[in-house]
Amino acid sequence: RYRHGNPIGTIAAAVLILVVVLVAAYAAVGRGQPAIVDTVSDGMFRLTIQAAKGTYDAEEPIDVVATLEYVGQDPAIEVLSHPGMPGFGVGRVDGTNRVDPAYRGSCVSYSFVRGQPVAYPFAKSGGLHDDIPYASFMAEYLDITDGRSDPVLRLPPGTWRIFAVADFAEGDCGGLMHTLEAGITVVVGVSTSSTALPSASVDALSSTPSPIPPATATPVPSPTLPPPDVAVPYPDGCAAYGLSERRCAYIVDWALTKAGIRDVESTTIELLGDPDCPDSACVRHWSHFIVRIRLTPATGTAVDVPLTCSRRGGRLSLLCTEHPQIQVRTVSDAYTDVPCSGPAPENPCATPLPTIDPAAAADARPLDIATLDIPIDHIGSYSITLGTAVLPNGILSTATFGLSDDTPSDVLISGGGMLLSVTSLDGGPPFDNYYSRGWRAGTESVKAMLTFTVEWFEPGAILQVTAIHVD
């Protein structure tokens, strides 16, 4: 595993304490009670969370496990996310206490084989400091002793929602995001004979057609949106959902691809709202709904493809914003993560390399470019050679660059953004990790490149790269 040197972020001026521990083995069957289960799917992945039973005594251990399964068309898939995905959280149904999961900032890969669910036992995490809401409850929930949290999930009396959140990207960190949240409701400290359990929640990420709400439900639609189950035609209905012509077409093309529909001409395309959040009181903590695309082939059954966007990664895709931001990435983003052989403190972590030799430092040569204009003249991949540098003892200290405009209106870069890579010209190993790459005598010549993929552009578009520095 890797221990990242920086916290996932800053909450005001407080220190973020991240505690992640696995709960003991999951009990598959509750004592005389049925298991409580919730499952959500976005058409490619299925997230399930389950507890052994629905009622518990106060402070009784609660056994919870989540499974994530790839159900797409390919035999297998690799996705990228933060360590500790999926995250788990708890919230009292009356809103008086809540703990959301916290994550490390580095990016790691997860592999899935179609039809083979992967199990994740419940794990505690949280960003703890005195100024946050529910700080006293979070401290009790994490129950930290000697830097370690109690691994067992226990809750005080009340009705609680226990949820799992899986958010990950296809292709590359910051690529097309998937965000699924599944939750179950349990009752703590109440007799099982006198308690009726609330139904498990159903997330809005299901790609199957959603049923029309029962007559007893009275949706309160936004004044600017049609009622959630009223279909409006494409493209005339795009404006009703605040979508430009370009973005709406992009979303529809994505939905057609996701649904595997190739005969576009004979397919009826309609736009609908969020079936599971029909009124303004519905709050999504990890994603926001954009639009639901209903595709009805001339011969076949209608398919609903809802689009929800991660609140963290949605800014990077035209699917989620009219002005997507180009993600700037470099080889040094996770370069100094510290490899550890296992959980601390029993398992040691890598030690720093020897210091840079003064003679090698004198012979080193950095790469510095103040500005570089890149004309955009085709759709597809770009590989721009920036130049060369000479590193002392083969140690990369810095690899950075910027953009004069990271939300351009005349060019669309894929969600993977722009990557500054560094490769050895002397046969050295990849620059994947400072510790595992090691120290070498003398100097090492390297080449710096900028790679990205263009999805759309206007003639004459130029990307201006700034402050390129490699040493």
Task: Please characterize this protein's 3D structure.
- With 471 residues, the protein is mostly beta strands.
- Helix content is 7%, strand content 37%.
- The protein is built from four helices and 29 strands.
- The protein has helices spanning 135-142, 245-259, 358-363, 434-437, and strands at 2-3, 21-22, 36-41, 45-51, 55-56, 64-70, 76-81, 87-92, 98-99, 108-113, 118-121, 123-124, 144-145, 148-149, 158-170, 177-188, 232-233, 268-272, 287-296, 303-310, 328-330, 338-339, 367-375, 380-392, 399-403, 411-413, 418-424, 443-457, 462-470.
- Strands 5, 7, 8, 9, 10, 15 and 16 form a seven-stranded mixed beta sheet that branches. Strands 21, 24, 26, 27 and 28 form a five-stranded mixed beta sheet that branches.
- A hairpin with a 6-residue loop joins strand 19 and strand 20 (303-310).
- The protein is flat.
- The two termini are 27 Å apart.
- Residues 1-31 and 191-223 have low confidence and may be disordered.
Give the overall average pLDDT.
78
Total beta strands: 29
N-end to C-end Cα span: 27 Å
Shape: flat
Condensed summary:
It contains 4 helices and 29 strands.
